[in-house]
Design brief:
Two copies of one chain form a homodimer. Chain A has 15 helices and 30 strands. Chain A has a nine-stranded mixed β-sheet. In chain A, strands 5-14-13-10-6-7-8 form a seven-stranded parallel β-sheet. Chain A is α/β, with parallel strands linked by helices. Helix content of chain A is 24%, strand content 22%. The longest helix of chain A is centred in the middle third of the chain and has 17 residues.
Chain lengths: 518, 518
């Protein structure tokens, strides 16, 4: 039976079904209003849990068995340990040994350390992955290696999907730097300290069974309980949940590239000129080299003006922590700590606040924090002349990145993408992006080393920079300049088969990724 | 049509229906296992909320109208301001002015300050109250004044009922000492600071509409967000949410009554002799004069032994805070701050931890904290020879108290009731209690000024005190002694009509309260 396709609101052809489930095509920003109800997991009863609160079982395999693991189930994990995670591979090794088939892996993100998962995708233990596939897993999926279709969601979209029952998690495995036998857990202490466990919040609240795995068991109470033991079924002690040096970096550095530094400076000057950097403002940058440089320029401007920011949204790092401790920023609202300074600050400073995809990004909530942020600085692999942007595929068609909080942050008051005009002699600004992850109407400004393009929808910003000395130009002019240097890029040849779907924040499908023909 | 009655597992006759809804009679401790699912409220969408996160509306009446208030709805409030609450009466004044009828008021508790509600019960604005009725409202209900039947639940039972969808809250009104325009709120600061807002947690999570009312609006973010703005629909600013001096007391005092002091000393000595007071133990007392004295004795014993408690469950107060600050207690896990010292400590000390009925008491969770507490000290209005106890009615039949966390605490490892043998020449120990709130199998020890009775089920405690010099006796002997002094109490004459139901922690009905004939 031939798959039917429907054209969605950004003109992409979307299959009617993905992994056997019906699909709602993207209908435009703020257009699809759900009439559903929150997912309702089965009720528990204290009568079925140890009266002394001790939920420990001997090992992960035992916990999976007690949780009733069986063919076709959805198993979730989380990327708090990033490329240092030691737990996810163990789960599927155990599942493979048990002879299980067709599991769905639902990570909040996967990393190169999860390359061994390819074996379990090949042998049928795992049917498909729903979650970002950074690096080798993305390449494997791009070449058509997965039995099912990948589904990529933003951090907020992942919360939304779990909350809405779009994804029903049978078993959540939450790896925790510190936990008690009742299942209370946090990421603040222990040798694998990663800061916070927010990506596992939805899983703890809605999964049918929840297993906490830790290498640092403390006696009750584990305080603070970022994950609440009242949602936890089993606790497993292991030697190591992660490789500390791969979990958080000791240092993240500001870029030294003159081009990137110039882009950062332009971005900061732009924000200053249009009046974004004012007393009590808020911003979200990131932990990349250019973003750090932008934060640094923000700091200089604030010092000069004698003002401070009300809050900065994290990913936190040494630079942001320095700004908090200097008093330039009143609060860090942090979704992910990127270095040890971030972990320490979150542990010690009550103004360095633990957030979650629920508070910050969930579109099916009564608002979220993203909309309250004055300016957000994001990246992109490609941008088109309508300001649509791509963050998941490269121009060669390979799916190599996750969405992260990127889509969610597009709802901030001003969205700026500081990007180089080309990478490896491939222009970044195109007539059409390979994959649309964010609709252009939400993207306000593109800053490159050759000029700044403002989205025509933002008449206010255009007006404010009418007499500016900044190199204001148009997106078309930037595209032409890139093409005059690198030539017009060849279209990429892709196959028919859809290997992954890109969800929008409301659960609709904004685009799909097709198989790469090598 | 005559109401049918069924005898429950503690021998009480329970009507088949209450307020038109079917009833499940109490089936015994840990016997009724729910097969239901968590309540699933309608999903929200950010598209329907202000993009800048500002949810303020002009006044409470406007918020109620926007929330769609109509006849028959269930409106919830919370007792964080205890007898100083200024919000609940305003809600029903507004509702009465709007001509609404048959509302259900679902407070976490009501106090004498809510006496004006009687007017709205009389004029039909309110059909009945589900929640404890302390004082005047209880007296009014006892005399048959309410149109419907009151339903009393423990703090944990209230969370369970909301979580399970047994009570669907149409509109929750959460009065908060501090809040931001997004709806994040806490009880730590502001002139009405009450410590925490845990009793409103279930309401914020499950109510269809949530209104936050505050007299101390701060700019986003209100940190910490004990109530998460992502659950909140509207924010209302008022001049005063409470009367500070009635919210928390400046001082709570240890009893000076020689009898009460003696009971307290006996209780502490008993705990010491049976080995409860050991390094790393945990306890929950309370804020009454006798409980405070027991905590004080515990402190003395710990100092003598050079040990400390791992945690104490609050209601916190100056005495418990002193123990925390002295290092006698590592953590206070607090459900309610009873004085200003408790509020200050919770604001400043990360080891003074905010809990909720979900973490501490919810029986339909994957365990809760109550079972982890080594010893809990509780009160009672009456106890029978089978150790069944009453906390809601007096021996004259009047319903004058709520259940609070009392039922939930019965799941602690050892439950001790230190009570006087008689009050106002009425014996406390009876053949049958007026109302069974807790089954005797969960109550371990009764300590009176005339001796200590151990529940025969606790053979371990009987064994450990076999050679004790403590005045160990039997419950029958205590009853006889009381009757030899006060005489055998006359049975109370009550009517047929059921004026209130007493829920057990699992949602079943353990007893009912009947109308008092004056």
């Amino acid at each position: 039976m031939a798959t039917k396709y429907l054209k969605n609101a950004v003109g992409r052809m979307i299959p009617e079904e993905i992994n056997g489930k019906p699909v709602i095509p993207f209908q435009g920003v703020d257009k699809y209003i759900t009439e559903g109800r929150r997912y309702a997991p089965p009720l528990a009863s204290c009568a079925k849990y140890p009266s002394d609160g001790d939920k420990r079982v001997q090992d992960l395999k035992t916990a999976l068995k007690k949780a009733g693991i069986k063919d076709g189930m959805t198993i979730s994990t989380h990327h708090h340990f990033r490329n240092g995670d030691l737990v996810a591979n163990q789960i599927f090794k155990a599942a493979s040994e048990m002879g299980l088939k067709d599991l769905v892996w639902f990570p909040s993100a996967s990393f190169p350390c999860h390359e061994p998962i390819i074996e379990y995708l090949k042998d049928g233990t795992i049917h498909h992955i729903e979650g970002s596939m950074n690096g080798p897993l993305g390449r494997f999926a791009s070449l058509g290696g997965m039995n099912g279709t990948g589904v990529l969601r933003s951090h907020g979209g992942r919360y939304q999907a779990v909350q809405d029952g779009e994804v029903v998690i049978d078993i959540a495995v939450i790896a925790a730097p510190t936990a008690d036998p009742f299942g209370n857990a946090n990421g603040l202490t222990g040798e694998s300290a990663c800061g916070l466990l927010g990506f596992a919040l939805a899983d703890s609240q809605y999964a049918h069974k929840v297993i906490v795995v830790t290498d640092n068991l403390v006696s009750f109470p584990c305080v603070p309980w970022q994950i609440q033991g009242n949602y936890v079924d089993y606790v497993v002690e292991v030697d190591h949940v992660g490789i500390p040096e791969k979990i958080v970096s000791g240092t993240t550095r500001i870029t030294r590239s003159p081009d990137r530094l110039y882009i950062a400076e332009l971005t900061a000057r732009f924000c200053d000129e249009v009046g974004i950097i004012r007393d009590g403002f808020s911003f979200q940058a990131g932990a990349g080299g250019t973003s750090l440089a932008i934060g640094n320029y923000f700091g200089e401007i604030m010092r000069q003006k004698g003002i401070k920011a009300r809050f900065a949204r994290g990913g936190s790092n040494q630079y942001l922590v320095d700004m908090l401790e200097e008093g330039l920023v009143e609060y860090i609202l942090d979704g992910q700590t990127f270095d040890l300074a971030g972990v320490r600050s979150m542990r010690e400073n009550p103004n360095h606040v633990n957030t979650s995809p629920f508070t910050s990004y969930n579109y099916h909530g009564k608002g979220n924090f993203a909309g309250l942020v004055d300016v957000v600085i994001l990246g992109a692999t490609e941008v088109d002349v309508n300001f649509n942007a791509n963050v998941v595929t490269h121009s060669d068609g390979y799916l190599l990145h996750g969405i992260g909080g990127w889509q969610n942050c597009l709802f901030s008051k001003t969205v700026i993408l500081p990007i180089p005009l080309f990478r490896d002699r491939i222009p970044i600004i195109r007539d059409e992006v390979t994959t649309i992850c964010g609709p252009g109407e939400l993207i306000d400004v593109i800053v490159t080393e050759r000029g700044i393009a403002i989205n025509p929808r933002r008449k206010d910003l255009i007006e404010k920079t009418r007499h500016s000395k900044l190199p204001i130009t148009t997106i078309e002019a930037l595209k032409e300049e890139a093409e005059s240097i690198c030539g017009v890029p060849e279209p990429v040849e892709v196959g028919e088969r859809v290997i992954a779907a890109i969800k929008w924040v409301d659960g609709t499908v904004i685009d799909v990724v097709r198989q790469v023909i090598e």
